[in-house]
Amino acid sequence: MPNIKQEEQKERQQQKIADYQREVGPQKQKEQENQDVQKEIRKKQAQQKKHQQKR
């Protein structure tokens, strides 16, 4: 009997994790994309500054 309870608890825990990932996953992904975009913008700005200094 105790074995069945442990299995049920494991399944519930996995379900909670899956639900959490489903909710939070897209947000995290968006944050990561935003950070990547910000990095690209900073790179371009830095390159433009270098160009302006050369003139």
Can you characterise this structure?
The chain is mostly helical. It is built from 1 helix and no strands. The mean pLDDT is 86.
Secondary structure: elements and pairs:
Blueprint lengths: L1 H53 L1
The count of helical stretches stands at 1
Give the fraction of residues assigned to helices.
over 70%
Reported for the largest beta sheet, the result is: none
Distance between the termini: 80 Å
Total E-strand runs: 0
Amount of beta strand: under 5%
The residue-averaged pLDDT reads 86
What overall form do the CA principal axes indicate? rod-shaped
Reading the helices and strands in chain order gives H
Short description:
This protein has 1 helix and no strands. The protein is mainly alpha-helical. The chain is rod-shaped, with a radius of gyration of 23 Å.
